[in-house]
Design goal:
This protein has helices at residues 14-25, 34-38, 43-72, 79-107, and strands at 2-4, 9-11. It is mainly alpha-helical.
């Protein structure tokens, strides 16, 4: 958003306005690649697509790790359940909260770098 000092009104940046929906879709699993395909050179959409892609790969790694844990530790009758339940809740809720926060920031037209994930977005090749 660009602020006009004389009138104190906000005029939307056209690039942000065009990329808001694609930027928000970046945080939905499997749709994180849409802005790279259909967004063209829209920097706002690509910014959120990079973060969404990193978050998507983290989701895949977490799901694989939880699957391995549930097939090893989860086979222990009571202890497996007690150990895995909090781990699942913390990891999956953390991913969900990050995705919802990114979705809300993108749809509202804000550049927002996620605390841990944002540092790794420079490595995404699009």
């Amino acid at each position: 958003m660009v602020t006009d000092e004389r009138t104190e009104t906000h005029t939307p940046d056209p690039e942000i306005e065009q990329g808001r929906v694609l930027g928000a879709l970046s945080y939905v699993p499997f749709l994180c690649f849409l802005p790279a395909i259909f967004g063209g050179k829209n920097r706002f959409a690509l910014f959120h697509a990079r973060q969404g892609t990193v978050l998507f790969f983290i989701e895949i790694v977490v799901c694989l790790a939880l699957s391995i844990l549930s097939h090893t530790i989860g086979l222990i009758p009571v202890i497996g359940f007690i150990v895995l339940l909090p781990i699942r809740l913390i990891l999956l809720l953390g991913i969900l909260i990050a995705a919802v926060a990114g979705f809300v920031k993108a749809i509202s037209g804000e550049y927002w770098q996620m605390p841990v994930i944002g540092e790794h977005t420079r490595k995404v090749p699009f």
